[in-house]
Structure formats: C-alpha cells, structure tokens
Design goal:
Elements: E1 2-6, E2 9-13, H1 15-32, H2 37-44, H3 48-56, H4 63-73, H5 77-80, H6 97-102
Antiparallel strand pairs: 1-2
Helix pairs in contact: 1-3, 2-3
C-alpha cells in the first residue's frame, strides 16, 4: 500500500488501484484528444488489445510506451500520472517532510 499526502489529506493506493486509476485517466486523455483505441495503439506501436488492457488497469505500459503516450497525446509527463489534485503552481508547497511529520509548518 502506498500513500501520498496532499493538502493535509493522505491518499492510500494499492498497486491495483494505481493501475486502474492510471487506466481511467489514460482513457479520458485519449478521448479528449479525439483518438480511438486503434488510432492511439497505432501511434504507440502496440496492438489495440494492449491499449485496452492499459485502460482497464490490467496491464501497465513499458517505459518506452509511456514516453510514446506523452508524445502522442501532447502532454507533459507528469500530466499522465496526475493521481491527486495538482498543487497550485504559483507558490511552493509549504513545510518540509520533517515538519509534516510533526504537524508543524512555518507561518507566513
């Protein structure tokens, strides 16, 4: 089980739920780009069934396929893996890891 803290909320995921979450995001990004599974599979150099398995969370793409996904969908790499809401980009995250553990943060 993995967890990520974001904005005071801890998100816990198993490997399976991470794969399913990634697959759902991939499906949404593909559809937003106006591509069919066949279109995207062809751009990636994989068969449609492999892409279908990625979207269903049954299989995870190889690193070179992840690079091709980012390029084919016109994304930044981190956009492909956005599993939690993004942090605001106009200010750095507050506190350090040790402060987060003790519950202390600097006051602005």
């Amino acid at each position: 089980m993995h967890s990520v803290a974001q904005g005071g909320t801890a998100y816990s995921w198993s490997k399976l739920s991470l794969m399913v979450s990634f697959g759902q995001r991939l499906r949404r990004l593909r559809r937003d780009a106006g591509l069919t599974q066949c279109d995207l599979a062809q751009r990636l150099g994989v068969d449609r069934r492999s892409l279908q398995r990625y979207e269903l969370g049954q299989m995870f793409p190889a690193p070179e396929t992840l690079v091709a996904l980012v390029q084919a969908l016109g994304l930044r790499f981190e956009d492909l893996f956005m599993l939690v809401p993004p942090m605001p980009r106009d200010r750095p995250a507050r506190g350090t890891a040790s402060e987060a553990e003790t519950g202390k943060e600097d006051e602005a």
